[in-house]
Amino acid sequence: MTGTEVDSEIDRRWEQLHTWVPYGFLGISIVLGIATADPHTGPAKWYTAWALIGAAVALQLCWHGSRFNRPDRGRTPAPAGTAYYVVRWALAFVLTWLSPFFAFYAASGYMDADELLSRRWRRLGLLASAVTVAGAQTGGMPFRSVVQWVVFAVLLVANSGLQMGIAHLTEQEKQRSAERTETIAALRQALDENAALHAQLLVQAREAGVADERRRLAAEIHDTIAQGLAGIIAQLQVVINTPDPAMAEDHVGRALALARHSLGEARRSVHNLAPVALEHDGLPEALTKTVGEWGERTGIRAEFTVTGTAEQLHEEVAATLLRIVQEALSNAARHARASRVGVTLSYLGEEVILDIRDDGTGFDLLAVPARSRAGGFGLDGMRARAERIAGSLTVESEPGLGTALSARVPLVRHDS
User: Fold this and answer.
1) Which one of 56, 167, 249, 304 has the minimum C-beta count within 10 Å?
2) What's the CA gap between 263 and 232, in Å, rounded?
3) Which residues have C-beta within 8 Å of that of residue 223, sequence separation ≥ 6?
4) Distance between CA atoms of 125 and 85, rounded to whole angstroms?
5) Dihedral sign, CA of 148, 150, 151, 153?
């Protein structure tokens, strides 16, 4: 049962209690009044008592019908509720003069004053009910001795003080309940806003990823395919301008080799638009194939190692690490002139570390030029990839001492 259903059930029980308790108290008062009535009581008093009892029953039936037809009417103070409270109190007051046992009926005013009377008149209503109940407890009105008046005063203070204290606690509890309701509503609103913000951030992250991928592809086309096409044009230009058939044939061969290489680069770029290597394999298996194929293609000794307990990573984390490795290997092939490259994937509890090392020429980190519009994807792009998933990328390199890249990202497990 949810919290809302529990609150609804509690409200329903209170509604039943406030509806039927006056009937029960009136019935108890009638039974006890008849059982203890003086057999010598005159008919006028009996007629008066039964007339008042009939009026009380009619009043309860009318109020019950109004609450049944308008369930919300009895829950909030209204003029009709105030009128019902006053008439019921008057009937109970007169009935206690006839029999003190009608104090049970008068005690109904303790239960529903908070719902029937406005805050302005609530304490006065409780005091009026306390007067009736205290008078009945004293032995019934009118009082015939000073002792009865003293006892009445003591009982009035006790009854009114008790009811005023209970009313005060009830008001405080209602106020705290209202504050809790407001707090819960504010928390729900904050959660909804947080969910909307999270969705917006996801959209922005995807857009940023698309923009990064476009820049990477533009830079890669410039660095590989565009340069290959420029080389082909240069070789064909020599063929056109040379009268030597042997030289022309040699340059045609070079042009064909460049064309094949450019075609291979174009296919690789298209292949890398999506990490298809991760469609059927986990990240360790995909990296094993990627590093192995790169080593065979470039002739550079390449090794891949996994440390720690491998886990199924979230697809975005796995794709990011795979892209970083592909870009780092591409840069190593073009610039590092390395004889050996090592890639290590480490699972360390709450994060994953990817290390890529080579023994190439290295470079001066302070002398790395800013990436131009036509420049390669490079370190800035790899760093942007890592930071997009709350990770980081560090680079260590010196001229002649090789290069070491280290990407640290949170270990976000695959959605089950």
Assistant:
1) 249
2) 12
3) 334, 376
4) 8
5) positive
